[in-house]
Amino acid sequence: MMQVFDTAPQGIQNAPHEPRILAAGHQVSVREINLGAVQDKTTLMLAFLNGLGLRSTFGQNWDALYDVLTDPDQRPARLALLLCDHAHFRRRHPHLNADLERVLLDAQAESARTDRHLWLLSEEPDSDTRHW
After folding, report:
1. What would the pLDDT profile of 10-30 be if each residue is shown by its tens digit?
2. DSSP character for 106?
3. Pairwise CA distance, residues 125 & 16, whole Å
4. Please, are residues 3 and 16 in contact by the beta-carbon 8 Å criterion?
5. Domains, the chain, ranges and CATH?
6. What's the predicted TM-score (pTM) here?
7. How does pLDDT run across 57-84, given as a tens digit for each residue?
8. Which residue among 11, 28, 69, 81 has the highest number of C-beta atoms inside a 10 angstrom radius?
């Protein structure tokens, strides 16, 4: 059975069951971004600051987020962002989500151009998780 880390990243994909275990077997670093408590752009940027372990000097804007995700000095060559509670976030904040997804997909495309991988994995809380 194919799994997500067997192929190059393609957009925002559903997170596999036990993503950290699968990622470890493929030498992929996983960073968890918790979207559950996001209320606005400020708290969204804080979620990335915390999830990516960024310094407080992080600019907390779309350009800064893109730069961090595409900077070879700041991130591993094989990185997966686990977007926790993504579906609920998308429903609650459609405009903010549209901006976020544009930045994430642009960063994913730029990573691919430089022979790096950025997986974007949408993970839902266990209560909603459907196992295929």
Report:
1. 999 999 999 999 999 999 999
2. H
3. 13
4. yes
5. 19-78+85-125 (3.30.370)
6. 0.91
7. 899 999 999 999 999 888 899 999 999 9
8. 81
